[in-house]
């Protein structure tokens, strides 16, 4: 295992308030980094954000991504993984009637396009664009798309593969023109930022008046977080620096100057989080047959969570925020 330096962060860096411990004993879910981490939740009722404590300083955070599961491949399990992938597809196919009947399929489609299916095509910036598949999807629908990402190799691949313009680094350092985009999207991005408020201010600046901001992020008050405690995949320490509930992210978005039009949670895709969280709980390595059983269980949990939101709103796996830049 690799070591990474961390430093205490006893108070909220968004409002300066003290915070109570909400979860401790969190380890790197990929098992590559030494140490344990905790999350605190701000006691200020006007804030309420959760933050990582201790946390790596910016000069050390690259180590967390150098061993990230998306950058490495494990050998020696090809047959098992191939069988699991096939099972995954068959299970999804068999569950399609249920998804169509209860609305999960519609929700998944809505999120596949970051809620933009009903919006007129325009200029779109995806912050934290990763491999660029979402941008390419929107480009095919007539959008003029650009992306930003910290990973220089990722941005180069997006530009080379899809012919999409990309920018390297923090959005606040990209110096993009003011009032130049119709939509800014951040899918599972804001939780990785040291200063999410500064990024939201920059989103407001580069959006045209009336422009739309769409964000998704893990829900710190989700059913999965409560059930799995330190093993919940959503903590993702030490890569996730801030976590939100619907209410806390809505407050932060308004604080940045936006008008929030939708603040909710969703369960589409939650099966993956349930499966990985349960795997994190297991001390022994699972056989591919055990993995198959776990896969079935995780899809059942996703369906249960989806229905549970009727009685317990804002308890889904992820937060969704849609907000507009005011027209002055």
TrEMBL record:
Keywords: Methyltransferase, Transferase
GO biological process: methylation
GO MF terms held by the record: methyltransferase activity
Keyword Methyltransferase recorded: yes
InterPro entries linked to this entry: SAM-dependent_MTases_sf (IPR029063)
Domain of life: Bacteria
Pfam families: Methyltransf_23 (PF13489)
Record protein name field: Methyltransferase type 11
Source organism per UniProt: Sideroxydans lithotrophicus (strain ES-1)
């Amino acid at each position: 295992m690799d070591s990474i330096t961390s430093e205490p962060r006893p108070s909220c860096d968004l409002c300066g308030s003290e915070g109570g411990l909400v979860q401790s004993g969190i380890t790197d879910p990929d098992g590559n980094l030494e140490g344990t981490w905790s999350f605190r939740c701000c006691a200020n009722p006007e804030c309420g954000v959760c933050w990582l404590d201790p946390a790596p300083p910016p000069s050390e955070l690259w180590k967390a991504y150098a061993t990230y599961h998306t950058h490495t491949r494990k050998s020696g399990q090809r047959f098992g993984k191939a069988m699991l992938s096939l099972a995954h597809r068959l299970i999804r196919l068999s569950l399609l009637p249920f998804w169509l009947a209860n609305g999960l399929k519609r929700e998944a489609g809505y999120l596949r396009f970051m809620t933009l299916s009903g919006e007129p095509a325009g200029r779109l910036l995806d912050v934290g664009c990763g491999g660029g598949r979402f941008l390419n999807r929107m480009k095919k629908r007539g959008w003029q798309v650009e992306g930003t990402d910290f990973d220089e190799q990722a941005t180069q691949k997006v530009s080379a593969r899809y012919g999409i313009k990309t920018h390297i680094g923090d959005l606040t350092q990209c110096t993009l023109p003011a009032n130049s985009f119709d939509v800014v999207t951040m899918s599972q991005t804001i939780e990785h930022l040291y200063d999410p408020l500064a990024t939201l201010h920059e989103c407001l600046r580069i959006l045209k008046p009336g422009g739309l901001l769409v964000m998704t992020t893990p829900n710190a008050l989700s059913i999965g977080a409560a059930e799995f405690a330190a093993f919940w995949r959503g903590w993702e320490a030490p890569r996730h620096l801030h976590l939100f509930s619907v209410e806390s992210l809505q407050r932060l978005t308004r604080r940045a100057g936006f008008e929030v039009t939708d603040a909710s949670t969703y369960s589409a895709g939650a099966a993956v989080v349930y499966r990985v969280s349960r795997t994190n709980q297991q001390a022994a390595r699972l056989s591919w047959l055990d993995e198959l059983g776990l896969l079935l269980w995780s899809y059942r949990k996703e369906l249960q969570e989806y229905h549970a939101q009727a009685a317990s709103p804002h308890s889904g796996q992820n937060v969704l925020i849609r907000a507009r830049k005011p027209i002055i």
